[in-house]
Amino acid sequence: MLRWIDERLGMASWARTGLRKVFPDHWSFLLGEVALFCLVILVLTGVFLTLFYVPDAQVITYQGSYDPLVGQEVSRAYGSVLDLSFDIKAGLVMRQTHHWAALVFVAAITLHILRIFFTGAFRKPREINWLVGIGLLTLALAMGITGYSLPDDLLSGTGLRVIYSVVISVPFIGPYLAFLVFGGEFPTVTIISRLFVFHVMLLPALLIGGVLTHLGILWRQKHTQFRVPGATEHNVVGRPFWPSQVFKSTGLMFLTAAVMALMGGLVQVNPVWSYGPFNATTVSAPAQPDWYVGWLDGSLRLFPPFEFTLLGVTLPTVFIPGVVIPGIAFTTMALWPFIEPRLTGDRAAHQILDRPYDNPLRTAIGVAGLLVFVVLTIAGGNDVIALVFNVPVEFMTELLRIAFFVVPILGFAVTYRICRELQSRTDRPDSRRPVVLVRGANGGYEEAVDD
Amino acid sequence: VSATRFIGLAFAASMLASLGLLVAYVFEIGSAQLQGVLLAIALGGAGAGIVGWAVGFLHEPAEIEESHDLASEPGERKAALTALDLGEITRRRFLVRMLGAAGALLAAALAVPALSLGPMPGRALFETGWRKGVRLVDADGQPVRVDALVEQSVRTVFPEGDVGRPDSQTMLIRLRPSELHLDGERSGWAPEGNVAYSKVCTHAGCPVGLYRAEDRVLICPCHQSTFDVTRGAVPVFGPAARPLPQLPLEVDADGYLVAAGSFEAPVGPSFWNLTHEADSSGGGD
Fold first, then answer.
1. How far apart are the CA of A123 and the nearest CA of chain B, in angstroms?
2. Which of A156, B103, B145, B153 is most buried, by the most CB atoms less than 10 A from its CB?
3. Distance separating alpha carbons of residues B207 and B205, to the nearest angstrom
4. Could you give the ipTM of this predicted complex?
5. How many CB contacts within 8 angstroms connect chain A with chain B?
6. Is the peptide bond before A286 cis (omega within 30 degrees of 0)?
7. Chain B residues closer than 8 Å to A258 by CB
């Protein structure tokens, strides 16, 4: 069999070097793999869902087995999601596994990006793969938002409405763009089927193509490594791809799938039957999107009412928090590998990773950016927090408006200081010496002096 | 437990769970919870077995692979550029420009059909179902008498014949007339304390469905924009910058509430040319 293939493709030498390719070991290198395996789970469960879901806004009378909604007018899309949840065997577990895998997919990508950022793995020669990675994050978010909107329920319909409002806010082209994307003034009957085309065809094609590019570049450039014994800027220390890495990664894939299936079976997610079908004149409260969109919603909630008209052109209040702020965030992130060398002057190629405290400026900026994300995400739930702590929502909003500026600055200063402190400690030649504490006769503790 | 036994047990658990899934499916026993747990054991057993295999038996020593600079030799690079060269052509710049222009126009021509995806906005964003003399009806299509609402109560209303029309949804609120602080022409828009405002938030378009009676404010549940209904629904908190457009009301001969005109401003989220309506018609507030 192998001979048959090799006689036609001549793969033996390629396979020999490929199978022996060395990959370094570190737990944080698995985050990207978890994202990849989530994608596999998403494709498999997604294909199942696609065979039952109906992307159609036509209104029917629900006659399925979920009693509270029997006899109600619902869209065929919403009805098909109810059928998947209640009437199709294994449908609910597939649906919930798909949703959980999507949430974990974005989370794994986010953690993977943080790992890359804080260890400086994006530095030369890996700037291109960083850009591919940011593209993949964007596609993953687009997949999440389009998929989340497909059930045509009240909560996701509210999300679509906010997206429409953000699109329409773009100066000069907003109304034209919004009418093109949505097929008219919100709400439209065409939007569900359009989102479906994007969610199951265009975006997955781009996403999978992007992932293959990402992996191809990784293969070509070799994986970065931490400063382990034997590691230099010109080698890779680790285990060969076959068998140990393949076994561990395959095992990790099955374990990831196991956790997703467990959550899909046991932990309810997106119960669209309790939100009800979409209706343009009602909205549920409190309304929170999936976790990775919360910061955008928080940005809309915190931004002050700032709208003005100059020479007949109005700048809508949602434009800055809904378009400009996310635009700045993504642009800065994408361009970071090109910004950092200007700050540090370091333009050399790197195979060895930084520890976060090796580069206090980068780490502090990263922490500040992360805190902006955290504050905005909290702001996305300001009404829930106000409810839980029994404070007025106005108070929460004002507090978070202050926190938006204060927390990242504080975070920057503290992180910078900690990094410097760690540097000065570990720069000491004896820093690897274990510190032995001894208990004295009077009950106190002191450092043992052993030399 | 020896590694072999652990791996064997893990695969055995996986097999049992897989069989369990089959049985549960065929005999329709169990719920999504059971399916999830069995699926997790089937997958997790396989995963644990494979990881156990790697940890137990695959103890390859760490290897070192040299990593070379990816950049090509300068000579190699020059050779590649030479290979790319199209050779000397007279008027090359002209041809390249023509190729670029043809490509750009072709791309534009191919993109034009995308315009079929949506109509031009036209006046859609400036118009609703409301005009002078149209009765206010509730969600069931019933007209609303001027005294139908008790003080401090609210109702979602639509233009008669357009029930459920999203851009025309309107909040009708009955207040004590003495509480209202409506200026100028607006003072005549609230017969017997009935005021009507667009229910589409001027921030991000959500239905402004919450009425906090003690403060006389409408609140948008999406982003907490808060509008004072006694003063023309001006925003008093939150991210909305424009008041909810007010619908002028009057009472017809039969005692029913009717619109005395259309909304005084475009409803819903702001867009760049929203003031152009006022410019052309000379109206507005």
1. 14
2. A156
3. 7
4. 0.92
5. 269
6. yes
7. 39-44, 47
